Amino acid sequence: MTDLPPPPARGCREAPVLKERGQREVFCGLTGIIWLHRKMQDAFFLVVGSRTCAHLLQSAAGVMIFAEPRFGTAILEEKDLAGLADANAELDREVARLLERRPDIRQLFLVGSCPSEVIKLDLDRAAERLNVVHAPHVRVLSYTGAGTDTTFTQGEDSCLAAMVPTLPETTARELLLVGSLPDVVEDQALALLAALGIGPVRCLPARRAGEMPGVGPDTVFALVQPFLGETHGALVKRGARHVAAPFPFGEEGTTRWLRAIADEFGVSPETFEAATAAPRARARKAVAAHAEELRGKSIFFLPDSQLELPLARFLTRECGMTAVEVGTPYLHRDILGPDLDLLAEGPVISEGQDVDLQLDRVRAARPDLTVCGLGLANPLEAEGLATKWAIELVFSPVHFYEQAGDLAALFARPLTRRRILKLEAAE
Q1: What is the pLDDT of residues 73-106, one digit of tens each?
Q2: Which terminus of the chain has a smaller tally of CB atoms within 10 A, N or C?
Q3: CA 270 → CA 1, 2, 266, 338, 387, distances in Å?
Q4: What share of the chain is helix, strand, coil (3-state, %, to 5)?
Q5: Residues whose CB falls within 8 Å of the CB of residue 62, separated by 6 or more in sequence, listed in order
């Protein structure tokens, strides 16, 4: 079968993990709505929260004043927070008004926020109650996007995990791709799998409510996002089996991800080579165009998106970078084990967050590039350290062969910019 570089002599699967349990700096879990509402074309996300929640979504999504977005906020006023009003009755009225005005909605998600959790508003029970009223035209589900003790990508995980128990039972042997991708990237993945002769292939989330997959003991699922720990557990509980593989970032990651699925479905080496040779060559060429800027440079990942370990694997193995520390909010070994096997022993692996201590280590190491949240980037830049926003890696198309060069470019640009500025300052 297609040749791949061998794993390192010693990977990081058994490396000691530095567990941090201190001050956190995270972006709100409601942010996941921004990409989920674009993915699920007949769904609506109703955040039960404050005006701050509404402003966050409006500004983060960049929705223009004349747009008709598929998310909104049911505002909890002072009387709701003080217990002077029946919040459930008001929520029922808001949902009824929304569905009357938007008959195109087929799935309605009640999304919990910090304010709704503070007053202990039971959105699970509210969703059950509203399902009785509005089914079968609309399915009502609930999940929490509160950002008090989570990271921003967990909003998607909570949403998909809430959907799993409602998926129909199936006895068909099917491949299920789990995780939200831009439509064009998802189409590329489906085309690659079709070229391998693998099918039927279903997706969670599906683009429309009527296309939701079934789940059963013959369902095999592959994750495309590394932050789906709760969804992974929910699918296993339904009897589905996970195909463990490195995540499809870069040429090697994509090839190993595809090969794990191909082995599961008995694809021949000749078929695999025929389907992947051309896109692999394009990916290698695209990555090489940016690897020269990255080769030999050091990188430090602060915990933020949960993409850190697969990205560190890509940057060290395909771009020649050196990882100083790879921090991640949560280390799920069943999901990240294959990437840990490929990440050569050496960097500190940390789980959780203690901002002050981690910033001390960044300042001591002075890496060439630091990947961090929005709130830390500007202070580090002011101290002369080049940074990359972690959130940009979630919002940008970065999966599979055709995006491998774009992924490398996202890390090369800050270093290129800094190099050019130094040259201009020296003239």
Answers
A1: 888 876 655 554 578 888 999 999 999 999 999 9
A2: C
A3: 7, 9, 12, 24, 43
A4: 50, 15, 35
A5: none
CATH of the domain at 185: 3.40.50.1980
pTM: 0.93
Residues 6+ apart with CB under 8 A from 343: 8, 11, 12, 309, 312, 313, 316, 317, 323, 326
Same domain, 297 and 417: yes
Q: What is the pLDDT of residues 248-293, one digit of tens each?
A: 999 999 999 999 999 999 999 999 999 999 999 999 999 999 999 9
Residues 6 or more apart in contact with residue 61 via CB below 8 angstroms: 33, 34, 69, 71
User: Token digits for 102?
Assistant: 């938007």
Task: Give the residue numbers spanning the domain of 293.
Answer: 17-24+283-426
User: What order of strands is seen across the sheet that includes strand 201-204?
Assistant: 201-204, 174-178, 219-223, 241-242
Find out whether 203 is annotated in a ligand binding site: no
DSSP state of 5: P
12 annotated ligand-binding residue: no
Question: How many whole angstroms separate alpha carbon 219 and alpha carbon 18?
Answer: 36
Is 53 flagged in the annotation as binding?
Answer: yes
300 shares its domain with 420: yes
The total number of structural domains that make up the chain: 3
According to DSSP, the residues that pair with 242 across neighbouring strands are 221
- The Cα–Cα gap between 154 and 151 comes to 6
Both 136 and 184 in a single domain? Answer: no
Q: Does 141 share its domain with 201?
A: no
